[in-house]
Amino acid sequence: MSPLGKRFLQAVCLRAYRFLFFSKFSGKGEALVEHKKIIELQNISKEFEDEQVLSSINLDIYDKQFVTLLGPSGCGKTTTLRIVGGFETPDQGDVLFEGKRINDVPAHKRSINTVFQKYALFPHLNVFENVAFSLRLQKLPNAEIIKRVKEMLELVALKGFERKNVTKLSGGQQQRVAIARALISHPRVLLLDEPLGALDLKLRKDMQNELKKIQKQTGITFIYVTHDQEEALSMSDVVVVMAEGKIQQIGTPTDIYNEPVNAFVADFIGESNIVDGIMNEDYKVTFSGHTFQCVDKGFAPGEAVDVVVRPEDVDVVNVADGMLQGTVTSVTFKGVHYEIIVDIGGFKWMIQSTDFVDVNANIGIFIEPDAIHIMKKSEFSGQYGDYSTFSDEIEELGNSETVGD
Amino acid sequence: MEKTRKNLGRLIAAPHILWSVLFILAPLIFVVYYTFTDAYGTFTWENIFALKEHANTFLISVSLSVIATFICFLVGYPLAYLIAGYKEKSQKIMITLLMLPMWTNLLIRTYSMMAIMDDGGFLNSILGALNLGKVHLIGTKGAVIFGMVYDFLPYMVLPIYTIISKLDKNLLEAARDLGCNPFQVLWKVVLPLSSGGIISGITMVFVPSISTFYISQKLGGGTFELIGDTIERQFQNVSTYNVGAAISLVMMILVLVSLAVMNRFTKEEAS
Question: Quick one: A234 and A277 in the same domain?
């Protein structure tokens, strides 16, 4: 598909999405009202024991959106969340809530609630009292508390669990209680710190859908922290990719995937082949000894760049028809496709193809212009995107962290 | 194999069992025996009836111990809470400081307290030098309560501190997050979750308080007796052994009953 076509389709999708979203939840006549900024982080820096955890974070979060802070452990995402929640104070910079500075507002006075990584349910209280906790503090009449807890437990599918001991519940159930407890006082913003980290895969997928559903139903702004890129892409309206205490990129999941700004983002989100290239002129790039048509422009002629090609965008063809030629070094069956590692001029590419090829076979590859994405050189250049040391096992280890930074 | 292990176990436990029989079980039997016999060894209810004379002493003992335990709780709980809030290194130092007085013998500590509180003691010399008059402390119930609090406070702080310092910090953050001000965090979350420590603390202060005789003798100045003093006096005289035994028995039952009540509390909290 041409890039123009792609953009157009995106725009159409966005319109359709907004139409659906607003007509369902805000009722009449507000279909095209832009969301207002609810949280603004301005120039936030934070140090822990001489270690710079956050440096100059600037982030606007809009009302009613599902925003995900995504990054490897130690990237500062949890600290960012804790600053919004009021559990840490920034060394520098301001936190704004609906335009008002809230740096000095303590956690218990913020209309922001948190779902903690390990749920943090009160073990001395049963399910009902855990959920009712914030309403009891507000000294609401008993009848209203009972009504609201009942509604909330229905929302998280825990009807009839009122009298249960929270320590006797399964992980998924505890998680739901934690969500119900945080939502019942109708906060404007809900913070979720790797809430699904301790659940097994199946339950995790279910909870992802459920969280997304709850977010839409309640219209509460969600700020979600995870190191799981798949989770981030499938749930979020906006993804904020962080690394080394800095925001690398802010965008919709499609933007982040299709238009990563640097090698870190390209590598962290999905699989990427990242090779060194030279931008000859607008729409022309040379890498691996071949000049390709591409859809990017605005670089200086002859500028060194990082070129990203997603494994699923590479077509396997005959050697003669290929733009580049290489030798297959490994083939792994992945169910939907084969994962093929090809040595092209000493650089190992990953290709995902539904066609089987033999190991040691010489193949040609073909890349469409819009499958090539050009990025400016960055501090991350050269660190990522080569599959010569790639192994599933290592990848697995890298992703298996469950406890956050 | 299993059998040898069992035999070995028995062998290792033997000294302890012997010890328990000789120094716990046998004395207990003696106490019961003396309680229900007179000086000639014949069965009698006399000693139980004689307890009436000491009802007042019982009352004073219980009330002073309850007050001292309560003060220990009021002082000890916030102290434990504060200590648990510090960094680990500081916590260790503070706990060591708290236990430091316990390295000194109880008698010496009580004597030094006499030296401080005496009519011509340290405190009154200072007050005198400042022309602030004198306070009479030794011989008052206040002095005895103060002595109990001073001597037994660490027993209150330690178990509470142990529990609070092990509390999941996320729970405290969750409470703040849901709208608790710092006082409400303490009241609604920390206090109920540390009830186990409170119960142990109360037990560990109340039991030695109610049975103490030394503190009341030194700091009470002999103006009134506690139950411990009475027991001691009864046993110093051969002819009143039996009454002494009866008082001990009643006190033991008293302590056991209060322990049972406490245990019930903790069990209810846990379930």
Answer: no
Q: Give me the mean pLDDT over the A352-374 stretch.
A: 91
Interface probe, candidates B168, B178, B191, chain A, greatest A C-beta count within 10 A:
B178
Give yes or no: residues A121 and A92 share one domain. Answer: yes
Q: Nearest CA of chain A to the CA of B180: how many Å? A: 6
Least confident of A23-27, A178-182, B39-43: A23-27
Whether A118 is in a domain gets the answer yes
A266-to-A9, A167, A236, A319, B93 alpha-carbon distances in Å = 22, 41, 18, 28, 50
Smallest Cα–Cα separation from B53: which of B217, B250, B237, B216?
A: B250
Q: CA–CA separation, A61 vs A88, rounded Å?
A: 19
Worst-scoring range by mean pLDDT, A303-312, A353-362, B251-260? B251-260
Both A347 and A293 in one domain: the answer is yes
**A165 located within any domain:** yes
Whether residues A246 and A334 share a domain: the answer is no
A401 — pLDDT class (breaks 50, 70, 90): very low
The phi, psi pair for A284, rounded to 5°, reads -135, 125
Domains, chain B, in order of start with CATH, read 54-270 (1.10.3720.10)
Checking if the pLDDT of B175 tops 90, the result is yes
Q: Which residues contact A372 (CB under 8 A, 6 or more apart)?
A: A285, A292, A294, A295, A296, A307, A308, A309
CB A110 within 8 A of CB A87: no
Please report residues of A whose CB lies closer than 8 A to that of B176. 86-87, 106-108
Q: Say whether both A43 and A172 belong to one domain.
A: yes
B11 pLDDT more than 70: yes
Mark yes or no for CB contact A123/B184 under 8 Å: no
Residue A368: inside a domain: yes
**Contact assignment for B177 to A106 by CB distance below 8 Å:** no
CATH number at residue A187: 3.40.50.300
Please give the average per-residue pLDDT across B49-53, as a whole number.
85
The two tokens of residue B251 are: 């006190």
- Long-range contacts: B108-112, Cβ < 8 Å, 24+? B109/B150, B109/B151, B110/B147, B110/B151, B110/B214, B110/B215, B110/B218, B110/B219, B111/B218
Give residue for tokens 């490994």.
A330
CA distance B235 to chain A (A): 48
The residue that leads in pLDDT, A20 or A87, is A87
Domain of residue A339, residue span: 271-399
Please give the average per-residue pLDDT across A218-231, as a whole number: 92
Burial class (CB in 10 A: 0-12, 13-18, 19+), A37: middle
Sign of the CA dihedral B166, B171, B177, B180? negative
The pLDDT tens digits for A63-75 are 999 999 999 988 9
Rg (Cα) of chain B, in Å, rounded? Answer: 23
- Among A108, A121, A138, beta carbon nearest to B176: A108
Q: Domain of A316: which CATH number?
A: 2.40.50.140
Under a CB-based contact definition with an 8 Å cutoff, are residues A56 and A93 in contact? yes
